[in-house]
Design a protein that fits this description.
The chain is built from one helix and eight strands. 9% of the residues lie in helices and 49% in strands. The chain has one domain.
């Protein structure tokens, strides 16, 4: 896993996401959602989206089957339904 110098991302409604570590299939994220939840080090895994939704970073539509990163912790966290489109994340990190 590669440690990054905190890559900050801003989502909707004041959501702050910082990528702390990453590998091809795993992320460690700091997730701060004002008034809802805060996870200092949350593990996310790459997978196919089981349902359609919206990317937490780009607000782009995600279709069932798209490659996404999702929280991987148990029990399910408050942000368990959140998804980040894998291609958006790759483009953002490669652009640094």
């Amino acid at each position: 896993m590669t440690t990054l110098e905190c890559v900050p991302l801003i989502g909707a409604n004041g959501l702050r996401i910082e990528i702390l570590e990453r590998s091809e299939n795993t992320l460690v994220i700091r997730w701060v959602e004002p008034g809802k939840c805060h996870y200092g080090e949350q593990r996310w895994r790459r997978r196919s989206a089981h349902t359609s939704g919206t990317c937490a970073v780009s607000r782009r539509k995600i279709r069932r089957g798209d490659a996404v990163f999702k929280p991987a912790e148990r029990p399910a966290p408050l942000n368990a339904a959140a998804m980040i489109a894998a291609d958006i994340l790759t483009n953002l990190i490669n652009g640094l």
